[in-house]
Design brief:
The chain is built from eleven helices and four strands. The longest helix has about 60 residues.
Length: about 375
């Protein structure tokens, strides 16, 4: 039984500890390729936006939410980790060639031994080599690119920053267009309304043969008032003649003239008021259409002012990407951490060995002795 235990112990030690540790030591010492990290830091700011001076307590309350710049930074980081970003990078950098160099070991090289060379597999590999995050201590966005050559890591990082700046510009253009399009639509509607009101007013003037009913009514009433004065003067002359010279031959002519003036007064008054075709009956509809034209003109003026204000506001709210730390070109590999990885394998193997040895001992103790 002692020989069996000793043989089992040595076998388990070799399987779980010696062989894995030796293999990992050989791999990390002679096979694993160096990996370089290129890091960049940036922030999204708004043009012309000043940070208000607030108290410490107010500042603490405000930091519970995301500012507009942080929201934009999150959008940029989401884009960096997207398939669209990978496609655009591939138009500028041969990503496959970067991660398929012969110097890269088989385990870290793209594609993995158990995967095919497909875009989805490349995207999975890409998300493992590129990381974007927000540093909550500084509020900066941190972009880290890992590659097996320092120049490649820096080049991909620079490309991602260039593409991110283009994304921010596209977002600015879209936001500006969305802000202005509604105001521009209001201007077009106001122009159509004013044009329609003017056409309706012109059509009504042509139909009724009126240029300005109020002015024309005042003119007609002015003529009627003049005729009333003339009628009064003629009636006074007639009264004097009838008292002083009842047989005066001018009396019939004067009476006819008074009748003609009275008829003209009635005609002029009828043109202004008192009939369905009079100017007064047309004035209400004319003023309605004139008021609609004035309202449309005021709405157009307000819409143009709103459009200009929207343009100014959109210009003020534009964001831009400011590079705080440019992508560095590392001169020292950060991975693989060779000694740490070997010790990790050794520790895990030792734990598995102890568990397996306890199971073997339990089995041997409960087995019947020959």
């Amino acid at each position: 039984m002692t020989l069996v235990r000793r043989a089992s112990k040595n076998l388990l030690l070799a399987i779980f500890v010696i062989f894995p540790t030796a293999i990992s030591a050989i791999y990390y010492s002679f096979i694993a390729a160096d990996q370089y990290y290129s890091e960049a830091r940036f922030v999204i700011k708004a043009q012309g936006r000043q940070q208000p001076q607030v108290s410490t307590l107010a500042n603490l309350i405000q930091t519970t939410g995301l500012s507009a710049g942080q929201e934009q930074a999150n959008e940029v980081l989401s884009y960096i980790g997207s398939r669209d970003a990978l496609r655009e990078i591939m138009q500028r950098v041969d990503v496959k060639a970067v991660y398929q160099k012969p110097a890269i070991d088989f385990w870290a090289r793209y594609p993995a031994p158990w995967r095919e060379d497909r875009f989805e597999n490349l995207y999975r590999y890409y998300t493992g080599m590129v990381e974007g995050r927000i540093d909550h201590d500084t509020g900066l966005a941190v972009l880290t690119v890992r590659a097996f050559d320092a120049e490649d890591a820096q080049r991909i990082n620079l490309t991602l920053l260039d593409l991110s700046e283009q994304l921010v510009n596209r977002l600015n253009d879209k936001a500006r267009e969305n802000a202005i399009s509604e105001a521009r639509r209001s201007v077009v509607e106001a122009e159509d309304r004013l044009r329609s009101a003017r056409l309706q007013l012109a059509s009504y003037r042509n139909e009724q043969q009126l240029l300005d009913p109020a002015s024309q009514a005042q003119g007609v009433l002015g003529v009627a008032t003049t005729l009333l004065g003339e009628q009064a003067s003629l009636q006074a002359q007639l009264a004097v003649m009838q008292r002083s010279t009842p047989d005066n031959p001018r009396i019939p002519a004067l009476q006819r003239r008074i009748a003609a003036v009275r008829a003209e007064i009635a005609s002029q008054t009828g043109r202004a008021v008192g009939t369905q075709t009079g100017i007064a009956s047309k004035l209400a509809e004319y003023e309605k259409r004139l008021l609609e034209q004035e309202f449309a003109a005021g709405a157009l003026t307000a819409a143009n002012a709103a459009l200009e204000q929207a343009r100014v506001q959109a210009q003020r709210q534009q964001f831009y990407l400011e590079r705080v730390v440019e992508p560095n070109r590392p001169d020292l590999a950060r991975l693989p951490n060779r000694l740490f990885n070997v010790l990790t394998v050794f520790g895990l193997g030792l734990c598995l060995y102890l568990v397996a040895w306890m199971l073997v001992v339990g089995i041997l103790e409960h087995s019947p002795e020959d």
